[in-house]
Specification:
- The protein has about 280 residues and is an alpha+beta fold.
- It contains ten helices and 13 strands.
- It folds into three domains: about 50 residues; about 110 residues, 2-Layer Sandwich (Uridine Diphospho-n-acetylenolpyruvylglucosamine Reductase, domain 3), CATH 3.30.465.10; about 100 residues, 2-Layer Sandwich (Enolase-like, domain 1), CATH 3.30.390.
- Helices cover about 30% and strands about 25% of the residues.
- Helix 2 runs antiparallel to helix 3, helix 8 packs across helix 9 and helix 9 runs antiparallel to helix 10.
- The protein binds flavin-adenine dinucleotide.
Length: about 280
């Protein structure tokens, strides 16, 4: 299906194969459009050829199984937040989806758009998914491919259509803490997502991801090592984080200078740890 609009040509493929072919022909995927259609505000040119993802059933999948969660790229933040309630290992992602942006954006912006947007430092879902050790499933000319999210962010997923995200389930707890400069509708200036196995009374297999501080979210591995084997203690976690903020080269931007992002990171870590206690 193809239509001409004020924004140029929009195709609506009904199969993954057609979508991959359209992308190869230069069509740019459009999901919730909350980023793409604001291109002129960023002084960017809108793509000439767009491809709506609304006809692709594979991108709508939502399965929270005992071993794995399959989260389709077209799920909105709202849908994700609702579906993940009551699962401690997915609580960080549920908070990220349910607290991001504002209610209108959450009803429209999608998982695929959030992790597929280049140059978007303040995504809430990306650090939550890094802490969940998520895998991205892409449709490419060579078929479906799996890529750890960090590799996708590093640019190795450039060629593909995001079909879904997969998260392996295990008895662990997760949390997400963010600091917007105002209460609502703002991008966060720093984000901390944590996921850990606490079943032994000591911290095991902890993953800590930081967003909005550098251009791309990433794991805070030195802090993970420091906290492994300790008991769950928000004050101790904050103190350890304070010693290790030098691991980041924080970005200066209109919402906040780099030094401020670094100064709030330990506090966000404490808040995330406090959520893990509940
Ligand atoms: C005022 C405002 C505040 C916001 N605050 C936050 C916030 O606090 N936290 C937060 O996380 N987000 C926030 N957002 C949302 C975020 O900025 C993006 O707009 C949103 O995540 C993009 O999702 P979308 O579905 O609208 O993507 P679109 O705008 O449709 O697409 C964005 C990009 O992703 C690509 N893309 C989309 N789907 C796929 C796919 N399946 N495969 C490959 N590429 C794809 C598109 O080609 C495009 O390049 C905010 C947005 C606004 C407007």
């Amino acid at each position: 299906m193809m239509a001409e609009t004020g924004y140029g040509e929009i195709t609506t493929p009904q199969t993954l194969a057609d979508a991959v072919a359209a992308m190869a022909g230069g069509a740019v995927p459009i999901a919730g459009a909350t980023w793409l259609l604001r291109a002129p505000l960023r002084h960017e040119v809108l793509p000439e050829r767009l491809m709506s993802l609304r006809g692709l059933a594979d991108l709508q999948v939502l399965t929270i199984g005992p071993r794995q969660a399959l989260l389709g790229a077209m799920l909105t933040h709202d849908a994700l937040a609702g579906a993940l309630v009551g699962h401690p290992d997915l609580a960080g992602l549920a908070t990220a989806a349910g607290a991001s942006a504002n209610p209108g954006i959450r009803r429209t912006a999608t998982l695929g758009g959030n992790i597929g947007t280049r140059g978007f430092a303040a995504s809430d879902l990306v650090p939550a998914l890094l802490a969940a050790d998520a895998t991205v499933i892409l449709a490419t000319g060579q078929g479906l491919q799996s890529l750890p999210l960090a590799q996708h962010l590093a640019g190795r997923g450039d060629a593909g259509l995001i079909v879904r995200v997969e998260v392996a389930r295990s008895p662990r707890r997760a949390a997400h803490a963010r600091l917007p400069m105002r209460k609502a509708g703002d991008y966060p200036c720093a984000i901390v997502s944590v996921s850990a196995d606490l079943s032994s009374g000591r911290i095991k297999d902890i993953r800590i991801a930081v967003g909005a501080v550098e251009a791309t979210a990433r794991r805070w591995t030195s802090l993970e090592e420091r906290l492994t084997g300790t008991t769950l203690d928000p004050a101790l976690a904050e103190a350890a984080a304070r010693q290790l903020t030098g691991d980041f080269s924080a970005r200066d931007a209109v919402d906040a200078p780099g030094w401020y992002r670094l100064s709030v990171l330990p506090v966000l870590l404490r808040r995330a740890f406090t959520q893990l206690e509940v």
